[in-house]
Amino acid sequence: MDIIFQSIGTIHTPYIAINTPHQPIADAPGDFWITLNPDYASALRTLDTFNYIYVLYHLDQVTPPLELLTSSPWAPDTEIGLFASRSPQRPNPIGLSIVRVKEIKGNEITISGIDTYNGTPLLDIKPYMHFLDSKEDANNGWFDTLPDKEHTMAHALGLTHEHEHEHEHEHPHQHVNDHDHPHRHSPAHSHEHSHEITHRQSHDHKHPGHLHEHND
Amino acid sequence: MDIIFQSIGTIHTPYIAINTPHQPIADAPGDFWITLNPDYASALRTLDTFNYIYVLYHLDQVTPPLELLTSSPWAPDTEIGLFASRSPQRPNPIGLSIVRVKEIKGNEITISGIDTYNGTPLLDIKPYMHFLDSKEDANNGWFDTLPDKEHTMAHALGLTHEHEHEHEHEHPHQHVNDHDHPHRHSPAHSHEHSHEITHRQSHDHKHPGHLHEHND
């Protein structure tokens, strides 16, 4: 039986489907905001008391194939089940991201970086409540078995971090946030992903500065 | 434009809509399991490497009214926006719960207590990953302003806990997990909820024992 939902707003991001990161990059350059259907604006009252929210959305630009056994961009050699992955290609393509609330004005919510493309239809917003949702004893499943787990997590989160490369460089270098980790979004698209990494000879761990010029 | 999803399985719980708790009670008595459409069984591979999962489901028995300004069963006097609440009455009635994975056999997943009624249609399962999903700096929003916050959280989570009642009892007593916190599920149903609490003169903090007799 069909389950019928309606879009209740739109998610605005600097991404198109093919350059959308796999996970939310909190400090990603660019503007991220949600425009809620104005009919629902009053339902945002007190949402600004939360620092994090769940955003649920319809991955309407994600197309088949639906692979029941898949792999992760972070572990291309590990075979995992689709439901053990956060792949956007799912029987019901519902995206779920946790983002920071920056500002709420009328029916617009400015948020931290989210891992979906510009124009994504919004399904729901729920408050993220520490006492319900932050499971400090949670593990990372198959991710915990990766040989270079901490480093891979830093990549997944878009964090700048140091590499040790057998003296290829005089100094540890920094990755800036220009990875190209496209969503797998079409049958022609392979499992491979590329890292386009700018190496800097720097000890600076701070994220490269960027301008937020949010034009309403 | 309609967004059309399909149920991919069924959630089995001891609850009917009117006695479903508002939040997952991890150690609730009774059996909780998910039957996935057998066509998708192979997509569960490696899901058992996670200790927690997200379960997304269609709250198909939740009916109007849709109140844009609502209150919480935990804060009946605080007016909050619908999107700042976890009310099941939402424009798109998608439920989201975090539960423990206990066992996976074929297309059946035995889970810890979940806050939905028996027969709920399943929309999706996603792995809960500590490094992505456990936001230790998250707050509890308006919940943090409640005068008896810690106590109310214990109720919400169904935890046994002590009360101090101005010497009404000789000893601190224990709540057993038989609260009746029904989902608001029909127009005739008021905001009020009742606590049916069994007082015991006991210092025992353990959860009352219960049998799990899971009949497949």
Defining key terms:
homodimer; 216 residues; mainly beta; Elongation Factor Tu (Ef-tu), domain 3; six-stranded antiparallel beta barrel; two-stranded antiparallel sheet
Summary, kept brief:
Two copies of one chain form a homodimer. Chain A is built from two helices and eleven strands, in the order E-E-E-E-E-E-E-E-E-H-H-E-E.
Describe the protein's architecture and organization.
2 copies of one chain form a homodimer. Chain A has 216 residues and is mostly beta strands. Chain A has a single domain, classed as YaeB-like (Elongation Factor Tu (Ef-tu), domain 3, Beta Barrel). Chain A is built from 2 helices and 11 strands. A 6-stranded antiparallel barrel of chain A has the order 2-3-8-7-4-9. A two-stranded antiparallel sheet of chain A has the order 5-6. Chain A is globular and about 50 Å long. In chain A, 42% of the residues are buried.
